Q: What sequence folds into this?
């Protein structure tokens, strides 16, 4: 099967940044489309669904956080769209907010184009699960289809982002095993990937919030990490 070129949507009100990232992504073998604000991005996404969105937080008309919220509340193909946030603000709270509303990763300006390309590539590589898994994972009332990237609870579909699905599949594939936050980062992103433990905590909260209250989905082991619950 021929290799499919990845299509990236760059959303930033700074034309210099858009040009810089378009060039860097093009050199990496990807195609890039540009949008100057969130409203233009919505039009572009409706016209052609990208494989990933590089999204600036601070923009006129429709900022990056609000665009992310709309995408996550939209149709399934948009709700699962990977998002890499760009921001000129380095406060940890901004990073946590971006992750909690559904972002997959976060890069602070000024940045190296190589770093952005590397992080885009790392997110896109999550199409292959980090651990060997069966064709379908069944655990209590939870079922996961790794090939179709579909999660179900009591037979009803649950919309998860790529990162959320991989996190849940990692835990469910090895019930009873406790994963430290560092171990989860290594499995999802690769060794040495620079994200904080709180980012993993945010992803866990996001996953829990998408399932019924009292689902016993992910168990926290204080001072250690996480494991799949009884479901």
A:
């Amino acid at each position: 099967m021929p290799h499919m070129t990845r299509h990236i949507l760059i959303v930033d009100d700074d034309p210099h940044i858009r040009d810089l990232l378009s060039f860097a992504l093009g050199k990496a073998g990807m195609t890039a489309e540009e949008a100057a604000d969130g409203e233009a991005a919505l039009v572009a996404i409706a016209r052609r669904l990208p494989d990933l969105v590089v999204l600036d937080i601070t923009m006129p008309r429709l900022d990056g956080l609000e665009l992310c919220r709309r995408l996550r509340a939209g149709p399934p193909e948009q709700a699962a769209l990977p998002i890499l946030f760009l921001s000129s603000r380095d406060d940890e709270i901004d990073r946590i907010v971006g992750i909690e509303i559904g972002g997959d990763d976060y890069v602070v300006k000024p940045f190296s184009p190589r770093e952005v390309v590397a992080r885009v590539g790392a997110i896109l590589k999550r199409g292959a699960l980090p651990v060997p898994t069966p064709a379908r994972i069944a655990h209590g009332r939870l079922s996961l289809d790794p090939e179709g990237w579909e999660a179900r609870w009591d037979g009803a579909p649950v919309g998860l982002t790529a990162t959320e699905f991989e996190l849940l599949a990692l835990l469910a594939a090895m019930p009873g095993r406790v994963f430290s936050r560092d171990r989860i980062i290594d499995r999802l992103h690769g060794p040495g990937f620079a994200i904080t433990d709180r980012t993993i905590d945010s992803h866990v909260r996001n996953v829990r919030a998408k399932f019924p209250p009292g689902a016993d989905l992910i168990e926290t082991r204080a001072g250690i990490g996480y494991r799949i619950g009884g479901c």
Notes: The first strand starts at residue 7 and ends at 11.
